[in-house]
Amino acid sequence: MKVLEPIWTTKPETAGRVRGRIERVLDWAKVQGYRDGENPARLRGHLENLLPKKSKVHRVIHHAALPYHDVGNFMAKLRDETSTSARALTLLILTVTRTSETLEANWDEIDLDQRIWVIPAERMKADNAHRVPLSRPAVAVLKVMKEFQLNAYVFPGAKAGRPLSNMALAMLMRRMGYDHVTPHGFRSSFRDWAAERTSFSREVHKIPDAVEAAYRRGDLFDKRCKLMEAWATYCTNARLAGKVVPFQAVV
């Protein structure tokens, strides 16, 4: 309680993750014989009676998103940009990853031949490694960056040995006249497009953290590869903006 109370209402997401880690540590300690009795970090039937419900303290922040039918035209304008920031934003959109996941990408995480990008657990919001299918356009972006590799980061920043700043993508969008939307919002653009304009099942295009457990199934990952290729086709062809793309359903 001394650990959680100061952050439970001010940083609810962090507090929830801290509580979960404490619970796992104490569960391990009990199994190993270092302690006994109930786990004091358990939420159900215990801490839920001592701490405010997260639904009452957590305000969901919706990131401003570009309507999916405008993404093709945005990508066409983005292709006219030649900066490292533009290439990073392109990869973020094509892979539907978060800003930090994209900017902190390391070359040792990426297999261009197999077209797979494995983001390690320590860089993922849910603390689980995430395997990202790389579409052909995404691989093309990475190959360009590989030609100018300066350090371990795919998108090196101005400071030696550091990646691009977290503000780099937002500043780029502001210069392009899109300061009314956010880079993170493209995840919503993708989700809406997949739900409304494709026949892929929800479990394939679902992108919250719970998907980490599902992508390890080989057949689902294959489906996600096809979905990301379809998304890349939509994104990189401005003529398709606002039109229904007839993708074949994947059974």
Attribute tags:
251 residues; mainly alpha; hpI Integrase, Chain A; 2 domains; three-stranded antiparallel sheet; disordered C terminus
Q: What is the fold's blueprint, element by element?
A:
Layout (H helix, E strand, L loop, with lengths): L4 H4 L3 H20 L22 H4 L13 H8 L5 H12 L3 H5 L6 E2 L4 E4 L10 E4 L2 H12 L20 H8 L10 H12 L4 H4 L12 H18 L16
Antiparallel strand pairs: 1-2, 2-3
CATH topology tier name of the largest domain: hpI Integrase, Chain A
CATH architecture title of the largest domain: Orthogonal Bundle
Mean pLDDT: 84
Total strand count, please?
3
Q: Main sheet, how many strands, which sense, barrel? A: 3 strands, antiparallel
Order of helices and strands: HHHHHHEEEHHHHH
Helix-and-strand structural type: mainly alpha
Summed up, the helix count is 11
- Beta-strand portion reads under 5%
Spans of at least 5 consecutive residues with low confidence? 208-217, 240-251
Strand order of the largest sheet: 1-2-3
Oligomer state equals: single chain
Round the Cα radius of gyration to an integer and report it: 21 Å
* Terminal residue distance: 48 Å
User: What top-tier CATH class of the largest domain fits best?
Assistant: Mainly Alpha
Short description:
The chain is about 45% helix and about 5% strand. The protein has helices spanning about 5-10, 10-30, 55, 70-80, 85-95, 100-105, 135-145, 170-175, 185-195, 200-205, 220-235, and strands spanning about 110, 115-120, 130-135. Strands 1-2-3 form a three-stranded antiparallel β-sheet.
